[in-house]
Amino acid sequence: MPDGNGKQRVLVVGAGPVGALAALYAARRGDNVAVYELRDDLRNPSTTPLNFTKSINLALSERGINSMRHANCEGLLEAVLEESIPMHGRMIHGRRQDGEFYEEPQLYDARGRYIRAVDRAMLNKMLLDFLEQMPNVTLHFNHKLTGADFKKNVAWFEQRAVPKRDHAQNPTGNASTQSNKDRPEEIAVHFDFMIGADGAHSAARFHMMKFARLAYQQEYIDTLWCEFHINPRSSDSSFAISPDHLHIWPGGSFMFIAIPSVDKSFTCTLFAPESYFAALAPLSSEKFVSSFSENFPGVCPDLISPEDLRQQFTENPHLPLLSIKCTPYHYRSSVVIIGDAAHAMVPFYGQGMNAGLEDVRVLFDFLDSHDVYSDSPKLATSPSERREGALNAYTIQRTPDAAAVNDLALRNYQEMSVGVKSPLYRMRKWLEESVSLYLPNLGWSTQYSRVSFENQRYSEVEKAVARQGKMIVTAISLGSVGLAGLAAFGLLRRSDLSPLRKLLDNLKN
Fold first, then answer.
1. Spacing of C-alpha 386 from chain mean position
2. Which residues contact 258 (CB under 8 A, 6 or more apart)?
3. How far apart, in whole angstroms, are the C-alpha atoms of residue 171 and residue 42?
4. C-alpha dist (Å) from residue 450 to 430, 453, 455, 464, 468
């Protein structure tokens, strides 16, 4: 039941960017919100490196920006954007046949729109700072969700005496020093509505599966990732390469990328099959650097010294990439999962965080449209019944959208590692952008623009891009037939047709 003031008791599991934004949305609507996080306070300097420096750098695009805009927290979006770096396009690095290095810029959007590089720790800190200022929000760190009863709406948490110290994508790396007899007692927390935003290895999802008939699909792709770091120039502390781009060294089955940071450094990531990592590991330092330089020209020693390159490869973990699809996202009126807990995806479209933040906006749009926050006495149904209707509508709409962006992210690895160098890719991009610019009434747009600079549903993006692809193929086919016809007509005009005419006259007679 709601508290004495008639407000929902909302329990948010997970204090990352998605969970923190969900808590802000609920708190701004007057709910009494309690946020529980497995790890220590994510704003502590001692916590940040252990959880975020080994995370893929974040690209903030329109969907994430729009979701923060609708949080109605004055100053939040402006503060986040102030600490971000605009990236106007990709910078493709390679080596020509004559051995010369080249850099080829590719704008993201013909209209000049861009994505932004953001530091995850900074974003998380700002969201938590805004939350902490709200009188109807409490934050609880070092609490592990150990159980939940979604019929009685009660959850149990274990307060951890030893803060969680491992990386979120490698949870088995942590070993508790507590024995079973020293294990702290669980606390029971009653709620009206739980929002599970606790990542790909979600405890909220695990406990919801005991109640909901949840279809679940998990896939690890044959690609690992390892983080590297490019320091600012030692001479003047400036960016070592252009800060206006996401830099890509495409290599077919592997690639190296670099994203700018506000401290003038670059956070870099090597994506490659497990076999490539295994082949690099035993090489001597000289052969290691040689192999790396052959595949990613200009990185070492120009941007990363041989010593640093080998050290970072050895010391930084080689982590897997996980893709998750499931449905439904809710159980009755009691719980909903969002973000990576519902649809973890590979990072190749830069949409993981953006999709999670958009989940929050879409979820609360449904809660609002189903009058969950209305106190009108004329409503015939209870808040719980209205909330169940909203969650059901959310699952119905969001499941195909999450599946679509999940698939788009998987396919975009091929574009980033191979397609960006293809003349056919560049020709189609030019053609679509030209139609979009000069024939705007057609509503034509590239797939990347639809995903990154618009708020169109992901499933509708997929359909629209498929239609555009068919139209392009049809236009090329008709154009080819037309050219062939013109060529044949020209040949006929220049040919001696008297034998053909004589044959036709004989047939007539």
1. 31
2. 230, 241, 246, 247, 266, 267, 268, 303
3. 16
4. 15, 6, 7, 9, 12
Question: Who contacts 116 (Cβ-Cβ below 8 Å, separation ≥6)?
Answer: 59, 60, 61, 65, 81, 84, 85, 86, 87
Determine the pLDDT at residue 472: 75
**What's the pLDDT tens digit per position in 219-235?**
999 999 999 999 999 99
Give the strand pairing for 245-250 and 89-95: parallel
Residue 163 has pLDDT above 80, yes or no: no
Instruction: Note if the bond before 328 is cis, omega within 30 degrees.
Output: yes
Half-sphere exposure of residue 379: CA atoms within 13 angstroms, side-chain side: 14
Which of 72-76, 431-435, 491-495 reaches the highest mean pLDDT?
A: 72-76
Residue 5: per-residue pLDDT: 56
Closest CA relative to residue 271, chosen from 165, 416, 391: 416
Burial class of residue 283 in the structure, from the number of CB atoms within 10 Å of its CB (0-12 exposed, 13-18 middle, 19+ buried): middle
Report the alpha-carbon distance of residue 147 to residue 157 in Å, rounded.
7
Question: What Rg, from alpha-carbon coordinates, does the chain have?
Answer: 27
Query: pLDDT confidence of 469, banded at 50, 70, 90?
Result: confident
Burial environment of residue 114 by CB neighbours within 10 A (0 to 12, 13 to 18, 19 or more): middle
Total-model pTM:
0.87
* Three-state secondary structure call for residue 442: helix
Is the predicted pLDDT of residue 499 greater than 90, yes or no?
no
Backbone angles phi, psi at 422, to 5 degrees: -85, 130
- Evaluate whether 295 touches 255 at the Cβ level (below 8 Å): no
* Measured distance CA(255)–CA(363) in Å, rounded: 35
